[in-house]
Automatic annotation (TrEMBL):
Keywords tagged on the record: Lyase, Metal-binding
EC numbers for this chain: 4.2.1.84
Designated name of the protein: nitrile hydratase
NCBIfam families for the chain: nitrile_alph
Length: 206
């Protein structure tokens, strides 16, 4: 990855210190209590995250009709899957839309305004997704940015950039890897990464 997306070694520590200070202030003012943050984090560690997106993508890979419905009406298609947790359309899951990679087209998800992101299917956004350099360069020169991520998109393939917002939160259905025809949905889901559902990587067979 380009040095443009690298950060100082102490960034995590400094960010954690700021977050702790903000949490302490909110508790002091009675806006949250001492367990609020831990409760929210536990939700996104155990119930809402990229493991949900991986299940959705795996179903789309094995069921073309479901894939069509997922692209046409993403929330309705997701609601069909009974093994996903309640609240998929709740916080940060409102108005989710899926786009599918395929022959001649590769999709990339960004958010030029801030860091809008479909948390229930992708988890919490990484640092680089929120970085102003990534957000601006990916909009202007997506092929160059993808190459810096290690993904060299052929010139014959169209790169479509989708800008997430509070109104629409996009995610990608990556192409199914070759040689996976005999794999189960669970095995296929293990091949799906958050990066592939953002469009900065592809799903690769194990």
């Amino acid at each position: 990855m380009s040095d443009r997306f690298q950060y100082p070694n102490d960034r995590e520590a400094r960010s954690a210190a700021r977050a702790k200070a903000l949490e302490a202030l909110l508790i002091e003012k009675g806006i949250i209590n001492a367990t609020t943050v831990d409760t929210v984090l536990k939700v996104f560690e155990t119930r809402m995250g990229p493991f949900n997106g991986a299940k959705i993508v795996a179903r789309a890979w094995v069921d073309p009709a479901f894939k069509q419905r997922l692209v046409a009406d993403t929330p309705a298609a997701i609601a069909e899957l009974t093994d996903l947790p309640e609240g998929m359309a709740g916080a940060e899951g409102e108005h989710m839309r899926a786009v599918a990679n395929g022959e001649g087209v590769h999709n990339l998800i960004i958010c030029t305004l801030c860091s809008c992101y479909p948390w229930p299917v992708l988890g919490l956004p990484p640092y680089w997704y929120k970085d102003p350099t990534f957000r601006s360069r990916a909009a202007r020169e997506p092929r160059a940015v993808l190459k810096e991520f290690g993904l060299d998109v052929p010139t014959a393939t169209e790169v479509k950039v989708w800008d997430s917002s509070a109104q629409i939160r996009w995610f990608v259905i990556p192409e199914r890897p070759a040689g996976t025809e005999g794999m189960s949905e669970a095995e296929l889901a293990a091949l799906v990464t958050p990066e592939s559902m953002m469009g900065v990587a592809v799903a690769n067979a194990a």
